[in-house]
Write a structure and sequence with these properties.
- By secondary structure, this protein is an alpha/beta fold.
- Helices cover 22% and strands 33% of the residues.
- It has a 6-stranded antiparallel β-sheet, with helices on one face. Strands 10-9-8-7-11-12 form a 6-stranded parallel β-sheet, sandwiched between helices.
- β3 and β4 (54-60) form a beta hairpin.
- α4 (194-209) runs parallel beside α5 (230-242).
- It is globular, with a radius of gyration of 19 Å.
- The model has no long low-confidence stretch (mean pLDDT 93).
Length: 256
C-alpha cells in the first residue's frame, strides 16, 4: 500500500541551545485540517541530497496533536545531511514527509508512569506531557502520578526546561527531575545519570504503596517510557528488570 506523502511548511524556528545547535521547529500542514497521530509517534522526512539520492530520516514529533501542524526537535550534526537541512530551514520553506509511524505510545488504560529521556530523546516525552496536561481543555492524566527524569551532560542541553518546570508547578501529579552528568559545582541541581533517580522513584513508590511491581503479568499499575541513546535505554531497562519489573511494563525507543 502506498504511503500518503504530505508537505510541511516551517512556520517558526527557535534556537534552544547555541552550544548544542539545537532547534525547536514548528510546522504547518495545510493539506489537512489536523495531522492526526498518537503522542510519541514519529514521522519520516524525505529529501534528495547533493548526489541526487533520496534520503529518509525519522524524527519523533515533539508536540501533542493540534489543528494545523506539529513540532520537531532537531540538533545539528556535523556532516549530517538531514540535520543541517532542517536546522537551516527558513520560515515558509517546506519538507516532504509520511507518517505517523511507531509504537512508542502511552498504554491504555493509563497508569502511573515514569518518563525517562536524555538529550533530544525528550521530544516524544514533550508530546506525552502536552497531551496529558493541555494548557486549555480537560486534563487527561486521570490523576495518575507522572514523573519525568531527564538527563543531559550540561545545562545548555536541557531542552524545554521552562515548559516542564511550568507544568510541574501547575500540576501536582507531575514531577520533573533534571540531572546533569558533566556540569561543574556551580550546578546546584541533581548530578549523575538518570538510572539512579529512576531506581529511587521505584523504591520510594514501593515503600509508599507496598507494591513493588506487577511482575506476574498485566494489568500493571505503572509503566516506564524510555527514549534516548541505546546505552541509556538498555541500562535503564536492565535496571527495572532487575528490580522485578515485567518487560511489558517497559516501553522504549532508541535513537541510535
Amino acid at each position: 500500500m502506498d504511503r500518503r506523502h504530505y508537505r510541511a511548511f516551517l512556520s517558526r524556528r527557535v534556537l534552544l541551545s547555541g552550544a548544542a545547535q539545537c532547534y525547536h521547529l514548528e510546522f504547518s500542514v495545510p493539506e489537512v485540517e489536523i495531522f492526526d497521530f498518537q503522542p510519541g509517534q514519529f514521522i519520516s522526512l524525505l529529501a534528495v541530497d547533493g548526489n541526487g539520492k533520496q534520503q529518509t530520516r525519522a524524527y519523533s514529533i515533539a508536540s501533542a496533536p493540534r489543528p494545523g501542524g506539529f513540532d520537531l526537535l532537531v540538533n545539528r550534526v556535523e556532516g549530517g545531511f538531514f540535520s543541517n537541512l532542517l536546522c537551516d530551514l527558513e520560515p515558509g520553506q517546506e519538507v516532504e514527509f509520511h507518517g505517523p509511524h511507531g509504537m512508542f505510545v502511552l498504554k491504555q488504560p493509563l497508569t502511573d508512569s515514569i518518563f525517562v529521556a536524555t538529550g533530544t530523546g525528550v521530544a516524544p516525552i514533550r508530546s506525552f506531557v502536552e497531551w496529558l496536561f493541555p494548557e486549555s481543555g480537560e486534563d487527561r492524566s486521570e490523576g495518575r502520578d507522572i514523573w519525568l527524569v531527564y538527563g543531559t551532560r550540561y545545562k545548555t542541553e536541557l531542552y524545554y526546561e521552562e515548559y516542564f518546570e511550568k507544568v510541574a508547578a501547575e500540576r501536582k501529579n507531575f514531577r520533573y527531575l533534571k540531572t546533569l552528568s558533566r556540569e561543574g559545582e556551580e550546578w546546584q541541581g541533581l548530578h549523575g545519570h538518570v538510572q539512579g533517580y529512576v531506581a529511587q522513584i521505584v523504591e520510594e513508590r514501593a515503600t509508599q504503596t507496598g507494591v513493588v511491581t506487577a511482575s506476574d503479568g498485566p494489568p500493571f499499575d505503572i509503566h516506564a517510557y524510555i527514549c534516548g541513546l541505546n546505552d541509556m535505554v538498555s541500562s535503564t531497562r536492565n535496571l527495572l528488570k532487575e528490580m522485578g519489573w515485567n518487560r511489558k511494563q517497559i516501553v522504549f525507543e532508541r535513537y541510535d
